[in-house]
Amino acid sequence: MMNDKIVLVTGASRGIGRAIAHAAAEDGATVVINYNHSETEALGLAEELRSRGLKAETFRADVSAEAEVQALFKFMRERFGRLDVLVNNAGIVGNNLLLMTSTEELDRIMAVNCRGSFLCLRAAAKMMMKQRSGRIINLASIVGRRGNRGQTAYSASKAFVIGMTLSAAKELGESGICVNAIAPGFIDTDMTRGLKEEVRQKLIADTPLKRAGTADDVAAMALFLMSDKASFINGQILGVDGGQVL
Ligand code: NAP
Fold it and tell me: What residue's CA is closest to ligand 1, atom 21?
């Protein structure tokens, strides 16, 4: 059980982050639901959880903006005085062939997926090193390992997340902090709902389990990684992809 644990999930208004925040709160944690644009969804989730006696708060911050990340972690320090788990989930996708990918699109993806996750990792590490404990779970992707046609910029941003995870795990382990990443395959969320039906069917056909994953499939792995049962798991990139990586 996650009783008394303070869990911050970035990008928790929708999709995978929302499912992770939900699962952690159900398990007894106090969750902080970070969001950027989807205020109604974020406040609605917190309200739903609190109405059931669970513990949830919200904080708006664009993870790519350093001052906003500083404000988010100031809130964590002043409100709770500690941070047990950071789920570095906020992310955006870009689906364009290389020659169609503008420099602006590259910069947008890198700002959220790379700078955003790095800023949150660094701020969380600062709090956790003082406590000498903590768990950091980064959302990578299967495409950060395998690449994907039409996703050069996005795949590169997820390869960054993988490299960041491996190095941080080596550096922070001696402070009692575990850093791991989840590499989801094709998960049915707003991020993938815009894909053409033929692309969706191809992704399902490439998945040995012959279905898209759900946000709850990913949340189950995140909940395990933040639990006491995962206390010796560090520096791993864990696939939740129905075998698509094979
Ligand atoms: P999603 O449904 O599009 O949700 C994205 C979430 O990220 C939203 O809550 C959004 O918040 C938040 N977000 C985006 N930019 C942000 C920013 N600058 N600051 C703070 N929050 C921000 O995406 P998802 O499918 O749940 O994906 C979650 C993570 O899993 C991402 O890192 C993604 O790359 C990764 N992933 C997804 C898949 C998949 O198939 N779906 C596969 C592999 C990896 P607002 O709406 O409030 O702005």
Answer: 11
Nearest to 47 by CA among 60, 61, 33: 33
Range of the domain at 40: 6-238
For residue 53, tell me if it sits in a domain.
yes
Question: How far is Cα of residue 10 from the mean position of the Cα atoms in its chain?
Answer: 7
Short-list 33, 18, 21, 119, CA closest to 70: 119
Q: How does residue 3 score in pLDDT terms, banded at 50, 70 and 90? A: confident
Asked whether residue 234 is domain-assigned, the answer is yes
Q: What are the tokens at 243?
A: 């075998």
The pTM for the full model equals: 0.98
Ligand 1 contacts (CB < 6 A) are 10-11, 13-17, 34-38, 62-64, 89-92, 112, 116, 139, 141, 184, 186-187, 189-192
Question: pLDDT, tens digit, for every residue of 148-161?
Answer: 999 999 999 999 99
**Residue 21 belongs to a domain:** yes
Is 210 contained in some domain?
yes
Report the number of distinct structural domains present in the chain: 1
**Which residues, including other chains, have CB under 8 Å from residue 103's CB and lie 6 or more apart?**
none
Task: Kindly report, residue by residue over 39-78, the tens digit of the pLDDT.
Answer: 999 999 999 999 999 999 999 999 999 999 999 999 999 9
Reduced to 3 states, what is the DSSP secondary structure of residue 51?
Answer: helix
CATH of residue 169's domain is: 3.40.50.720
